[in-house]
Every structure is written in structure tokens, then in C-alpha cells.
């Protein structure tokens, strides 16, 4: 048996433990394909995201963090639809099959999967430059998926948690050289271990009129939502939930830049009709993260950021992962 | 809009044309995730396969052939479950976004997708070393998926079509140097454009007791089926459907080696209980490919190939794609 068959068997045995009471997974890892069941009252939600070394993460990223991250970014997509995650497949391309690396990667991935009751149902392990593609499946009640195009003028614009911390963490990593103590900092942890807002996303189905997750930067992702909905927005810099640790380390101006144009936050950005905002506040009071009302949708297509009433210009150089640094 | 956003838009516009009458696809390309519907009388079948340049295909493989191939290998997995293909996602990693390359790739992929009524519902395009991961979704009636573990002693062992031609085509490509006329040969075409046995696979649900597709070589893949089922086999070299053009070009001995240990045929290998063999023959008489009965399952775990009654030793060096040539 070659090393890749061993890796597949390794995943299969780890996963088997968590499969005992999964009636929705009829056939998991090990056949030509997986077989699953979804109840007739649900629609299926399917997302796929690839992480490539040198583009989405730097060489030497801890295997545990990468295992967490490849699942987290896909969970975030499912969350942004207001859906409940169910199953995933893993396509892992490895330059060499170091057992220790795969062990740590799988712990990172499966720990997060188990936390969200997500079953790893299949995959493909191949040799090549390091890259991971996860396809995540979830469910929603028919018609309940929250799309990008549902916002109308006069609705509140919200974001979960705090934005910019991941980009600040990345900046620390890139400037760290060999200072490994930095890897322990909260900001770097925020970059390495994004927290997908799965429970919050599900709770927002029925509340939010449109939703997107913040992967490429708040301004870019919000602009996508607004364009898809055919509305503009008036937004307030002072309402931005910037991160206190980022301000402390980089100053307020740079923290705002990270918040607007950085990426990898994996917070949810969404719109809520005026009549549902009180219901949102009550729901969010029980969440593990705060929410911030950063502005309102308006007719037209203009997106206007203001700081204390004065126009604020956002750099349109959106965060492009590591493309500048890529070989 | 950056080049990758342009590629996504390019796929979305091409795909939109074929989506008009797809009630099962509620949301396709363009949101955080796709939303689909599957009727309550079906189970969902999910397969994923990655093709990496240098491992699964050589540098310079025509973009059209690669687009065809990445879909074909996944359709073959769905076929090997006896399922009907429905939707796919595409994760495409590209070193640079040449519009012409993407155009030819998309034509190769979408032509095959349309032929099988498969909807491209989502994906992710990123920068990095050339690699393609497709995740394919299909459906079967509850309990009707044909697994690898259903064979019992005394059952016929069959294979669709002819085996070894793809490996012969690969050998031609590898020895071709700059002789581009070779790319027109039937054998090279067989390697570049595998034909997934989708209709045959569906017809085999209810007939075959176990099934697998031949991706790594007939002997290796059949051994997987036999091991999963806990049976052995007696097999006949003279019943092997080797390819006439392969014999003509490489001689009979090498043609048999290609047939047993070559890969990339994407034929179906399956077992059928004795009482269903007549029904199989009647069904197969209408198929576009032949079937061959190459042996029988037996008790135990021995896999014995015989040629005119004498033991025939199969090299256990299974086909490992291009790993030897990979950087």
C-alpha cells in the first residue's frame, strides 16, 4: 500500500469513530463515492474553496492551523447562506506524505468538523504542490437560504464580531522573521484560526435580507452584496468594530485600513429590514460575538463611507491574499 | 475586477444558458454557495477527484482535453455507484489566467457536462500550480448504490469496453517528443478523452452485486473490489478485452500488461450473480460498448490469473500516474 492509500486509511479510521450515529451518511470514505441522505423538507447548500500554498497561506503555516482553516473558510460560506453544515469532502495535494504533518493537519480539520457535527465523507489525496480543496454541504429549509441579492433601500447593514484583526495578524507573521513567540499572539491566532459564524448564520436565516461572509475584506465583500442587490449604502467609519489589539499595535488609521481592506476575517456582513432590527438585537444578545450596525442601504449604487460626517475614501486595492509574495 | 473574477463571470455566463429549465438548481454560480433540490425518493452520491499537473497529466496537455478529463474521472466514480449525475463544482488553480486557455478548458468541461445533463453549480478559481478538483453529485434510489463490498463467491466478473488503450496512448505521448501528429491517433485520444460509462453504470444498479471503475489499472482496482467483498477470483487472460490497436502497435504481451497494470481506462469492473447474468447480457446488447466476462469470484482471498489454464503472474507495480516523472 502506498503512502497516499495509508493517508486515506488514516482519515477513514479517525472518521469512523464519529460516524456511528450518523444515519444521514450511508456510505462514507472508502468507496468510489459517498452516499448520503437529506430529509425531504430541506434544500442542499454546496460550497467549495481552495487554499494554495503561496497564495492563501505562507509556506511553513502550521499543519494544524491549515487543517482548521480549510474547513473554517467553507463553514463560513455555508454560514453566509444561513445553512446548517452537514458533510464535507477533502481534496489534499501534498508534495510528500509526512505522517506527522498529516496527523497534525487531520487533528486541526477534524476538531473543527466535530465541533460543528460535520462528517468527512470522502476525498482524494494526491502528490503535487501543497493545496487543499474542501467542498462543504449543508441544508436549509426550502427558500430559506440567505442570498446576496435580497437587500432593499433603507435597511440596516451589520457585521458580526470585529474586523481587521486577521489582516493585522498576517502583517505580524510577514514581519516576524524568526520570532516564533509572535505566533502566540492573539492577532496571529485570529489570522491562523478563523472562527466561522455558523450558529449566527443559521439564526440570521429569516432575519437577514442579504448576507455574505468577509473573506476578501469588508469593503470588497459588502460591495458585492450591494451590487448583487442593486442598492447603494451610507456607512460610518466610527461604527466599524475595529479590533482594540490592532489599534494598540498598529494605530487607528492602519486598523481602519485593515478592517476595510484586509481579509480573512470570516465575519458575516448582512442587511436587515427596519422592522426586524429589534428582533435581531434580541437574538444577537445571546450570541458569542457582538454585532455592529455600520450603516444603511440607500437607493442607487453609490457606496459612501463617512467619518464624523465627512467623506472617507477607501483604498480600492482589495486584499489579494499573498499574490504579491507568491513565486 | 481581477482576472479570476473575470473567469468566474465567464463560467457563469456560459453556464447560465443551460440552467433555464433546471428546477433542481435554485442558486448556481455567483453566491457564497449553491442551493439545490433533490427529490425525497433519492439518496445523494458525492465523489471528488483532483488532477495535478505533473502527477495526473503532463505539462502541455491540451486545455480542452483537461476540461473533459477532470469531469470524466468524476462521472466515472458516479457511474461506478450506479448513480445518475446531477451537479458539479469546479476548483481550478491556475498559474496564470490566460483567457484562451480558460476558454478551451471550459468548452472541454461544459461539452461533456451538457452531454450528461450535469449542471456546474459553483467553484473557486485561484492562482497557483495548475490543478483541478471537481466534486460531482448524483442520485440513486435509496439503497440502490452499487458498492465495492457486495460480491459473493460464484459470481461472474465483467468489465465494460476495452482495457489498456489509455496506458498505450500515454506511452505514445511520453515517447512522442515533438511529433504532434501522434496526438491525432486513436490510442492517444483514448488516453486524453476517457469515456465515462454513465448510462451503463446506471443500468447496472439492480444487476451488479459490486462495482468499481478502472482508474489505476484493472488488476489493482479489481483487487480492491475483491478485498472489500472478502472473496477471491479466478480470472482468464484470454478473456481480457485488450485493444486491437494496442496489440498492433505494442504487441500482445505489452498489450496485456497495459490492460492489467495500466490505468486511466475508466471502464467499469463489476460482479453479477449467476441468476442475473442472462438479464445482464440482454441489457448490455443495447449498450454502446461491449462487456467481457473475465472470470468468477471464489471463496477465499486468492486472485488467480490463468492463461490457457496455466498460472499467469501479474506485475504488482500498479500504474502510479506520472509520479516517476513528477518534479
Oligomer, anyone?
homodimer
What Rg of chain A do the Cα atoms give?
Answer: 20 Å
Find the biggest chain interface: A-B, 64 and 64 residues
CATH-level-2 architecture of the largest domain in chain A: Alpha-Beta Complex
Percentage of residues in strands of chain A: 15-25%
User: What would the CATH topology of the largest domain in chain A be?
Assistant: Phosphoribosyl-aminoimidazole Synthetase, Chain A, domain 2
Give the total of domains of chain A. 2
- Which sheet architecture does the biggest sheet of chain A show? 7 strands, mixed
Order of strands across the widest beta sheet of chain A? 8-10-7-11-9-12-13
Would you write up a description of this structure?
- The structure is a homodimer of 327-residue chains.
- Chain A has helices at 3-16, 63-79, 99-115, 165-174, 186-192, 198-204, 218-229, 244-250, 252-261, 277-284, and strands at residues 25-27, 34-36, 43-52, 84-94, 119-127, 131-140, 156-160, 210-213, 232-236, 268-272, 291-298, 303-307, 310-312.
- The two termini of chain A are 34 Å apart.
- Chain A is built from ten helices and 13 strands.
- Chain A is α+β, with helices and mostly antiparallel strands and 327 residues long.
- In chain A, helix 2 runs parallel beside helix 6 (198-204), helix 4 packs across helix 5 and helix 8 (244-250) packs across helix 9.
- Chain A has a seven-stranded mixed beta sheet, with helices on both faces. A four-stranded mixed beta sheet of chain A has the order 3-6-4-5.
- Chain A is globular, with a radius of gyration of 20 Å.
- In chain A, helix 3 (99-115) links the parallel strand 4 and strand 5.
- Chain A has two domains: 3-140, 60s Ribosomal Protein L30, Chain: A (2-Layer Sandwich); 156-311, Phosphoribosyl-aminoimidazole Synthetase, Chain A, domain 2, CATH 3.90.650.
- Residues 317-327 of chain A have low confidence and may be disordered.
- The longest helix of chain A has 17 residues, at 63-79.
- Chains A and B meet through strand 2, strand 3, strand 4, strand 5 and strand 6 of A and strand 2, strand 3, strand 4, strand 5 and strand 6 of B.
- Strand 2 of chain A pairs antiparallel with strand 3 of chain B.
